Structures are given as structure tokens and as C-alpha cells.
């Protein structure tokens, strides 16, 4: 045991500094670089951009670099309808998926919370289990189901409901379905936690006083579980907005989602500065929901402690 | 109106049946059709394990699986150490300057879209001139996984009775010895769960790895994705089924371990 670790001051600094430095270097610093790059001009070089700011190049170079900073990428992003449309359509698809998940999540969470004590852990485990299997595999599974010659069309044809296959794959419907399927545990778990904490006697009292179940839900359960619903909605909406695998595998070639647009600007067009500008845009849109979520979490932690 | 104890129960059973069918039927279809003898995935042509045989001779796929496993184990190890470290800092140091910043840095990656994490890390690696490949993927995975480990371990540390550690220190234990001999054994289940979660996240990651990987470092999800974009094939069904089987086994083992741990704790 060294003297430094024994002295409380030093060891405290060390304990806090190691994870903080790691995250500062590999999480915060990269954002600064994205911000910087979003203000640079693209170039056909390797790496494909004109660097601005070389902190070691001296003051003169720095001022020269400052003047070469350009808002051109952001002008492009906002003047080209493609990018704004991609953002709006991402918000729309992620929003619809979040609403659908709220509609599925509440009955599911309430049914889980009413399971006999003995079965509840198993029920919850079954909700979480798919989260542990690969995201990619779970989305891939839907390709086989939704294809024109896939299992869903086969089933509907077998039932005699359709003659011609319905186009499910490569539609917005498929994207919303994929998002709902992929993020379902993130909605059900916070909702379950909120519903299970609810005092059952409140709902019973409402029922005894002649309140129909839907009204009890609307007047008692919903208001009291709103923080859980908000946490679930944010946990689903935030990653859905930047989702890329789902629109790429299940969406059509004309489907616009901001994550996919960023991806193709980066990998196909090799326009790193424009991709960075899109990342900054996405981050700006996501910052308010992330901060609300963070506040909800902080309140939950302080409540638990 | 009063006599309705049966109908809500039926409603619950219906809801849960639908929920679990929705969650599991797609996965079951993949597994079942991986045993299909036909190359046409929608037509059942008898039971066969030939696609599993062809997996074993698919060299690029096996290489990718090996790389994924190495990156997964290594990044999970780093993430577990750093994540536990951060959890200790957040729960055991009391208030200190920068605690809020550390908390924010731990929480932000949890919800950050992968595409932003991937892009920003790639730009960092390019800026500092690090060759992209095995090590850059490992660093990237360790960074986002450690935050998940922190959340898990932090939850356990908050429920832990602090007086045990304080007693150890009062009895002459150094803070570090108290951590090794008292705290760590008590939080070991959460730390192990954190390791498993970090491993899973790493094995699962496609987006970040695609950004920060270089020539020669193709992970298994990247390989599967490349084939899945071209359509459904029995080989992908087979490799997916193998992965699903492995995850199920790992989770069964983990739940048995925690059950034993809980039983032991109750006996004490």
C-alpha cells in the first residue's frame, strides 16, 4: 500500500480522475472534433477534409484557420430539402413508434404487474430476454416475415384473405414495426416499474365506487404512472430517431431517416464535413429529450437512495 | 357489474399471449427454418442440419466470429474495470467538484445514437493517427459498455450498507483493502452481470464497429449484415440460431448463478 493511496485526498482524486479522463478522451473530445469538422470544407484527400485548427501549428496558422471556418455545410443541410425532410420523417416515424409502444406497453405492463407473485420474475425475464439476443438478428427475422413471398403473406393467403401479396417490406409500416419490435423492452420495463409501484387499493376504490375500468385507467393509473411513461417514451424515441439498421433492412430505398442519410453521406459520398454537420443537427434535436430523461433518472435515483 | 373477477384475468392472459407471441414468433421462425433442407427459405422441404455443416467451412464467417469474440472479451474486461471504478467514484466519494460532469458523461452514452458515437470516435482516431482495426473497435466498445456497467454496479452500491466498509476501515483496513475484501465480494454479482452485458453489447454492435474498423477487422455482425442486406438465406438463419442458442445458454448459466448467490445471501 503506497502512501499516496492511503492519504484520502490523493486517492479520492485518483478514483474520480481515471474514469473521468477516459470518458473525456473517448467521449467528449470526439464531439469537439465532430463540431470542428462540421465547419471545415470537404476535400478529395485522405482523410477527406481540409483540416481546421492545428493547435500545434502556432498562432498565425490558427488565425488563418479561423478565417477558413465555414458554415457552408450547415447552409447545405438547411437549403437542401433532402436533409430537412430526412430529419422530419425520422421524427415522424420515431414518434409513431413511440405512440404505438405506449399503446402496447400499458396493457402489457399492467398484465405483468397482475401476474401471481410466483410468475412475475419469469414474465419480466421473458420481456427482457430478446434484448439480449442480437438486434441485427431480430430485425433480420422480420425480412423473412414481411417479404412479398414471406411468411405473413403466405399466412394471409392461406386464410383466404388476400390473392395478391401485400407489400409490407420496404415501407414505413415495416420501419415502425421494426422499431416497435426492437425497443419494446425499453418501454415495458419502466412502465412496469411505475405500474407495480402503484397502490392497488386506489384502482379498487375507484372500481368499488362504480368507475368503469377504462375511466379508472384514465383518471387514476395514467396520471400516477406518467413519469414511467415519459421515461419509457424517451428511452424509445431517442435511439429510434438516429436508428440506421431498421430503415436500412426494412425500409425502402426512398425511405428517409436522418441516421441513414448521415451514413450514406459518410460512407458513399465520403463527405465527412457534411456528415458531421448532420451529426451536430441530430444531436441538437436530441439534446432536449436527453436532458429531460437525465432529469427523470436523477429524480428516480434520489428517490431510491 | 360486481361479478367480473374472471374477465380481467382473461384479458390479461390474452394480452400476455399476444405480447410473447409478438416477441418470440419471429425468432422461432429463424431457428426453425435454419433446419430446412431447401435453399428456398419459405418452403419446408424436410429436416436437415446441412446449413450448420456449411457454416463450419465458411472461413470468413469463422474468422469474423473469432475477432468478435476477442474484441468482446477484451472490451468487456476493460469496461467492467472502468465501469465499476466510475460507480465507486459516483457513490462513495461524497460530493466533489465535477461529480455532476462525471455523472453526465456516464449517462449520455447510454442514450447517444450509435451513429453519432461511431462517427465521433472515428474522427478522433483519424485525428490522432491511430490505425483503425482491432484496437480501435475494442476501445470504442469499452467506452460505451463501461457506462452500462456503471449503472448496474451503481444501483447495487446504493443499496449496500455502507457501515460494513466503514467498519472494515475502522478496524485498520486501508480504503483499497476494504474495497477488495468487503465491497467487491458484496457487489460481485452486479459486476459479473455488468461484464455479461458489456460482452453482449460488444458482440451485438454493428454501427460503431462499421465506423471505427479498418481492413482486416471485420466483426461477425458486419459479416452477417453484409449478407442479410442481400436477402434471407439458410446459412444466415443457421448462424443466427447458433448465436441465439449461445445467448440462451449464457443467460441460463447466469440466472442459475444469481439464484445460488441469492440463496447463499438468504442463508447468511
Give a brief description.
The complex is a heterodimer of chains A (305) and B (268). Chain A is an all-alpha fold and 305 residues long.
Q: What does this entry look like structurally?
A:
The complex is a heterodimer of chains A (305) and B (268). Chain A is mainly α. Chain A has a domain of 190 residues: Orthogonal Bundle (MetI-like fold), CATH 1.10.3720.10. Helix content of chain A is 76%, strand content 0%. In chain A, α5 crosses α9, α7 packs across α9 and α14 crosses α15. The N terminus of chain A is likely disordered. With 268 residues, chain B is mostly helical. Chain B has a single domain, classed as Orthogonal Bundle (MetI-like fold), CATH 1.10.3720.10. In chain B, α3 crosses α10. Chain B is globular. Chain B starts with 5 loop residues before the first helix and ends with a helix. At the A-B interface, α2, α5, α6, α7 and α12 of A face α1, α3, α4, α5 and α6 of B.
* Number of helical stretches of at least 4 residues of chain A: 15
Based on Cα principal axes, name the global outline of chain B. Answer: globular
Q: Which residues of chain A sit in consecutive blocks of at least 5 with pLDDT less than 50?
A: 1-7
How much of the polypeptide of chain A forms β-strand, as a percent range? under 5%
The CATH top-level class label of the domain at 91-258 and 283-304 in chain A: Mainly Alpha
Largest interface in this structure: A-B, 90 and 82 residues
Mean pLDDT of chain B: 86
Amino acid at each position: 500500500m503506497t502512501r499516496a493511496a492511503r492519504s484520502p485526498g490523493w486517492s479520492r482524486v485518483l478514483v474520480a480522475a481515471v474514469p473521468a479522463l477516459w470518458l473525456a478522451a473517448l467521449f467528449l473530445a470526439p464531439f469537439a472534433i465532430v463540431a470542428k469538422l462540421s465547419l471545415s470544407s470537404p476535400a478529395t484527400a485522405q482523410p477527406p477534409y481540409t483540416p481546421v485548427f492545428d493547435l500545434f501549428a502556432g498562432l498565425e496558422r490558427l488565425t488563418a484557420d479561423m478565417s477558413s471556418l465555414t458554415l457552408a455545410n450547415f447552409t447545405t443541410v438547411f437549403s437542401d430539402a433532402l436533409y430537412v425532410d430526412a430529419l422530419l420523417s425520422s421524427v415522424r416515424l420515431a414518434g409513431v413508434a413511440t405512440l404505438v409502444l405506449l399503446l402496447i406497453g400499458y396493457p402489457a405492463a399492467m398484465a405483468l404487474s397482475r401476474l401471481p407473485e410466483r410468475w412475475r420474475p419469469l414474465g419480466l425475464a421473458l420481456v427482457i430476454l430478446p434484448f439480449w439476443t442480437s438486434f441485427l438478428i431480430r430485425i433480420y427475422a422480420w425480412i423473412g416475415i414481411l417479404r412479398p413471398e414471406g411468411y405473413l403473406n403466405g399466412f394471409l393467403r392461406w386464410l383466404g384473405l388476400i390473392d395478391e401479396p401485400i407489400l409490407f417490406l420496404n415501407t414505413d409500416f415495416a420501419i415502425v414495426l421494426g422499431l416497435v419490435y426492437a425497443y419494446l423492452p425499453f418501454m415495458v420495463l419502466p412502465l412496469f416499474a411505475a405500474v407495480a409501484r402503484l397502490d392497488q387499493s386506489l384502482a379498487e376504490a375507484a372500481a368499488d365506487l362504480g368507475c368503469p375500468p377504462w375511466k379508472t385507467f384514465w383518471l387514476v393509473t395514467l396520471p400516477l404512472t406518467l413519469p414511467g411513461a415519459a421515461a419509457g417514451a424517451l428511452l424509445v424515441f431517442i435511439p429510434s430517431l438516429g436508428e440506421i439498421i431498421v430503415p436500412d433492412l426494412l425500409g425502402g430505398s426512398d425511405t428517409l431517416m436522418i441516421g441513414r442519410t448521415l451514413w450514406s453521406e459518410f460512407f458513399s459520398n465520403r463527405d465527412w464535413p457534411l456528415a458531421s454537420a448532420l451529426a451536430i443537427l441530430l444531436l441538437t434535436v436530441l439534446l432536449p429529450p436527453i436532458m429531460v430523461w437525465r432529469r427523470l433518472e436523477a429524480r428516480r435515483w434520489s428517490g431510491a437512495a | 357489474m360486481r361479478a367480473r373477477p374472471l374477465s380481467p384475468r382473461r384479458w390479461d392472459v390474452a394480452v400476455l399471449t399476444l405480447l410473447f407471441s409478438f416477441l418470440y414468433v419471429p425468432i422461432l421462425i429463424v431457428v426453425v427454418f435454419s433446419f430446412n433442407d431447401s435453399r428456398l427459405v419459405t418452403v419446408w422441404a424436410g429436416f436437415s442440419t446441412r446449413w450448420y455443416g456449411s457454416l463450419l467451412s465458411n472461413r470468413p464467417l469463422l474468422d469474423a466470429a473469432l475477432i468478435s469474440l476477442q474484441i468482446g472479451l477484451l472490451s468487456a474486461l476493460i469496461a467492467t474495470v472502468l465501469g465499476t471504478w466510475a460507480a465507486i467514484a459516483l457513490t462513495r466519494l461524497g460530493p466533489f467538484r465535477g461529480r455532476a460532469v462525471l455523472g453526465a458523461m456516464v449517462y449520455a452514452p447510454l442514450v447517444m445514437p450509435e451513429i453519432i458515437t461511431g462517427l465521433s470516435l472515428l474522427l478522433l482516431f483519424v485525428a490522432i493517427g491511430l490505425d483503425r482495426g482491432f484496437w480501435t473497435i475494442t476501445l470504442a466498445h469499452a467506452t460505451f459498455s463501461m457506462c452500462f456497467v456503471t449503472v448496474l454496479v451503481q444501483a447495487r452500491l446504493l443499496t449496500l450498507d455502507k457501515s460494513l466498509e466503514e467498519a472494515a476501515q475502522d478496524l485498520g483496513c486501508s480504503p483499497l483493502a476494504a474495497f477488495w475484501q468487503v465491497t467487491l465480494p458484496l457487489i460481485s454479482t452486479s459486476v459479473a452481470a455488468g461484464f455479461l452485458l458489456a460482452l453482449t453489447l460488444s458482440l451485438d454492435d454493428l454501427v460503431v464497429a462499421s465506423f471505427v474498423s479498418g481492413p482486416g477487422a471485420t466483426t461477425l455482425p458486419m459479416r452477417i449484415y453484409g449478407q442479410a442486406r442481400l436477402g434471407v438465406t439458410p446459412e444466415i438463419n443457421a448462424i443466427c440460431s447458433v448465436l441465439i442458442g449461445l445467448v440462451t445458454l449464457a443467460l441460463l448459466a447466469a440466472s442459475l448463478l444469481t439464484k445460488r448467490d441469492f440463496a447463499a445471501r438468504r442463508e447468511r
